[in-house]
Request: fold
Amino acid sequence: MDVDQVLLEVVGEGEVASYIPALARVPADKFGIAVQTVEGDSFRAGDAEERFSIQSISKVFSLMLAMRIVTDSLWDRVGREPSGNAFNSLVQLEFERGIPRNPFINAGAIVVIDALISVLNEAKICFLEYARGLSGNESINFNDEVARSESETGYINFALANFLKAHDNIDNDLDVVLDTYFHHCSLDMSCVDLARAFLPLANNGFSTILGDAVLTRQQSRQVNSLMLTWGLYDAVGRFAYRVGLPAKSGVGGGIIAIVPNEMTIAVWGPGLDKTGNSAMGTRALEMFAQMTQRSIF
Amino acid sequence: MDVDQVLLEVVGEGEVASYIPALARVPADKFGIAVQTVEGDSFRAGDAEERFSIQSISKVFSLMLAMRIVTDSLWDRVGREPSGNAFNSLVQLEFERGIPRNPFINAGAIVVIDALISVLNEAKICFLEYARGLSGNESINFNDEVARSESETGYINFALANFLKAHDNIDNDLDVVLDTYFHHCSLDMSCVDLARAFLPLANNGFSTILGDAVLTRQQSRQVNSLMLTWGLYDAVGRFAYRVGLPAKSGVGGGIIAIVPNEMTIAVWGPGLDKTGNSAMGTRALEMFAQMTQRSIF
Amino acid sequence: MDVDQVLLEVVGEGEVASYIPALARVPADKFGIAVQTVEGDSFRAGDAEERFSIQSISKVFSLMLAMRIVTDSLWDRVGREPSGNAFNSLVQLEFERGIPRNPFINAGAIVVIDALISVLNEAKICFLEYARGLSGNESINFNDEVARSESETGYINFALANFLKAHDNIDNDLDVVLDTYFHHCSLDMSCVDLARAFLPLANNGFSTILGDAVLTRQQSRQVNSLMLTWGLYDAVGRFAYRVGLPAKSGVGGGIIAIVPNEMTIAVWGPGLDKTGNSAMGTRALEMFAQMTQRSIF
Amino acid sequence: MDVDQVLLEVVGEGEVASYIPALARVPADKFGIAVQTVEGDSFRAGDAEERFSIQSISKVFSLMLAMRIVTDSLWDRVGREPSGNAFNSLVQLEFERGIPRNPFINAGAIVVIDALISVLNEAKICFLEYARGLSGNESINFNDEVARSESETGYINFALANFLKAHDNIDNDLDVVLDTYFHHCSLDMSCVDLARAFLPLANNGFSTILGDAVLTRQQSRQVNSLMLTWGLYDAVGRFAYRVGLPAKSGVGGGIIAIVPNEMTIAVWGPGLDKTGNSAMGTRALEMFAQMTQRSIF
Reply:
């Protein structure tokens, strides 16, 4: 598997997210890739060990944790269907009376976090410990500057949360819920951290790092199915068409992809295409899938 | 693999489609299942050899044929993204200015058929020959009564086609396009026919019946990815979550599912759940997936 | 009342409708204005006697006729509410399950005409006679070239009509309904004709030309209220704000405005602003209202 | 003018607003009516002197004040068009990128209040003084319990305000803007107060109480036009059709109607119909218009 070749062919492109300073100042030409196999092999190249803001990738951790500790009622509060792009966010939420279509749109992730807060004493801390445990890296942490910036400019998220509350789909204090949400999204991790932390999704729920199952086999497949049907926003169909692997992206430029029963691939390139996904990361995964002939289809 | 056990546990449920007489008079307690493996084994149970109206399942045949004979420009005229449910049909089409979100919603299938008509002299005949060839059954045929009924009551499809034309996304005569569309949907096939005809999608594009590739390996995967992200209307997320296999349903009660590299499973039960998918068929596939632990995730 | 002054200050502007040849070849610098008072005085200037395609202005005639001869059930099939602009046409119709929001959007006018056809033997002829009678001009007529062009390119209207039919809101043959609709819209009349024909709406329903009431006082007011709340598409609010008179425009560049109890004003300028209303006509009415201090508010 | 007769024929009906305690405990059988003419005559009947929560009627005061003291740029931040019903609130706001369609929907009123805050030191106090001055009643006041309840449960309004802020259409602190908004809506006034306060809108902008013009003649007409096209939510078309007078309603059960150049009519009945307007009030105004043959059309 020649990850260096992928690295060579992927050139800088796309626009770095600029809505908060901490993201805007990341150099556009950064690129890292890390692969972790279920047999324990790992590969890395480029800036694979540099930490970046994982942003929406954190929504997968939140969901994994919630599927473990929240009762099944979670799916009464959030759907499992993809969401047409022109209809995302507030519009869809209004038509569907406060039930977000899936746990990876912002409104859905906010509901998942509210559910976590209802059963955990210190949801933020528990989440951080969970991510540290999964990646086997006790030094990963929230980025307070990022969380603060998000909080100061995240009017759409405040609007979403208030709207969910108006539809009785938030149980806890709105400020606590949003503070937790912004912190989850602010987590700084490297490609290597991500590739290791998500290995259970390629391993039927078993974490080799923790030596224990963090999800059942079925739950692991379910998370993968949700990533495939709504992991890359409005590029999800094209990504499934071209790459054919469950994946989740974040606005910080990271993407984690799963090859079930084999490996995880984490890529990072801060330049985003117009669908909000890492331009280099998407191309790298496409090349990787073609070179290795990996696809779930 | 005990397909009879599946049969025993699935009881009659759901509502038979009643918008045209030919569908309405099908007994609700019919149920058939057929499995075809890439090694050449086959299993069948119940009404597996009885023909029924495949309806929207025909959209996969249309697409497969179009991917083979229409240039890449097909994807300029139709998208590859899932479609939120409350927003399907005309609404979405208007917001997106006449570009259907994917080839499996009605508007998308109409565009695919228009593209076929532009390159084929006798699109209806070619399509029929294509389906006959894939299933190795020269006796399958259109159901003229069904096609006529659809044509007489299909005002929504006429509305969609006119709207597409208004946006310059139909090249041929509307009546010809719709007549072809209604005939494709009227195809009568059995579970056994379907399981055989779709085997190339489980076999990297190779048809053992024809002894030839009908799609490239990549195209085969692409069709599977499109089925996974929009094959079961607004139940696509839940189906991916519970069953985890690419599949396509029709309002006649049929569902075809693909286990890549292994087999196809065709089920038929005319009673539909509220998402418009076969209630018995969905349950049967769920049981099958659980019993055999098959899933692409 | 110095209608010539209005004429002098209104300069050519806007874009002539170009979707059909007969409209596209009208010179953009045409401008006419005609005023008719309930006392019998009349004023005219510019191209006031030249006939043009009245297009959507015909919807008011259709409605007036329907209010006279169709039972109250008309309002079960079409609403009386304004329609937000981004949501017009098919989108709104789908959300509201086939009940057009008002009789002046295309879908609403199609329903009104369907209702007329149900009670009249020869709806087209009756309509023509009605318009001739109201204007006291036996020579006005349909423009067959315009009707044919509309019919050949009016895919959106065909889509709307099919959609209405799918929702059981059309009783007659679709082709007959649309042919009638296209003919109504194709009526050629001059400003003078229009100012005379609409005088009953300024005269509590009484036609001085016919020497008879064509509407009750209440019906006359009701038609005016519908014009005020949806006569000028998405410019209705601004027009009410600036001009303050019930009015109806057509894509041919005509606008008819009503000063209740006093007079009618018909203007014509083929150049349209981006809301689809005559640019010169709107400005002329604005100047007229300011100069004469007429407003219903 | 026999306002007592109106009173006798209007019976209790509709549902009292129950989303906050202060509104829920108002007896459903209250009913008052007050008429004030430009000549100085006044009539009153029933509970015409009892104060109630004027709620959205306050939006007219906010707008009148803003038209006086805010520059024309107000109309760059808020539209003047009616809003289709199924598409109000967040949905419409999202499609139109943060520009509310008119100053009487909640989002529009919040923008108007933000504009007032930008030019006034103490917007709440100025507004209260303005309402007191217009009605000639120094004792009218905000209802702090109502304002507090709205603030505690008004998640939709918080969502709207955050969404407006996300689109840069709020300049001031969100909490200050919403606190001001909730206070404006909490104003307690009687029918007599309202009939007197709104007299300038029937009097070309001149307040006989203040002995001064509070609006120009044109501005007065403009406010009336806005009331006619969006004063009664989704009943605006039917109300214009049946009553034919500019009017504004509030969820507290009040409605103020204007007969230009003649009089104002204020009615109050707490029971609301399904469009959110006073059921008794609407019927009373309909009877009044019929009996007196008043209509702007």
